[in-house]
Amino acid sequence: MKKADSWREDSDWETLHRDILAVIFAKLDVMDLTNGASRLCSSWFLASHNRTLWNTIDLGKLGKVKKGRSLRSIMNKIRTFLFNVNEERTSLTYITKFSHTAPKNLFFTSSSWTEDGDVLFAAERLPNIEKLALPRRLLESDKSLQLAFGKWKNLKTLIIAHNRYPLTKAFEFQVLGENCSNLTNLKYLGCLDEHIAEQMARYLQSIKRLSLQCSVVTTDEVLLLITNLRNLAVLNLSHCYGLDQESDMVLVYNLVQAASKLDKFITCSQGCTSCQEICSRSWVNKHWRNDEIKEFEF
Asked: What is the homologous superfamily of the domain 55-296 according to CATH?
């Protein structure tokens, strides 16, 4: 009798409506969904492909799941080191068997490396991305990036945290201007030098919201952006390094005057404790998902 009741209970789970299963599956992490629930029975396998489950692919959270399983984490690190395995490409290959082209948001792990062709690999499988966060270390050729962003015609928000590590180079914003006409939100964490500021001003005229949170900036470059980005409405300069070092008060006055045309101009108050911590890599890794402009939070 007990065995019969157990069989009936299992059967009830199998016959749950797919929409109900999708609500339940939304509570699971990616590993439990793809490696666990989807393999239980045919109806659960089909429900795991529900488009509503795959609006966002966050590879950073996938990394946290793996860290929680210590043996798997250790084996993955050894495998990656010995055999040069690209773990994020492997993850995307597997995840897109379930998501297909449904995802609209794609977030890479901030501290990961991409090899040449990785971003194009993602763009070919996920052409409908509207919000994208790229890793800080991009080992991508100009040709690969040109082809990748050529497929992301719907891209509206880009978050790029770029440091000039060995073998990496400055991100060329021309590729965005030539391919992403719907791009209105840009967050850049890095060193805003003259070359980058000039590229932004020349190629990103559609930008309405710009965050330079935690970047190294100068008054000249910020003034260049405010003056030349005709559609700019919101600018975030919180926790930036360099503005407080400006000694030319005429430049500071000009910056304040230029910023008065914006709908919103975000800066830090004096004595901001966060500004004292921005040199810490762990602080950037922890907070680059947050921003005073809600469009950049993820």
From this structure: Ribonuclease Inhibitor (3.80.10.10)
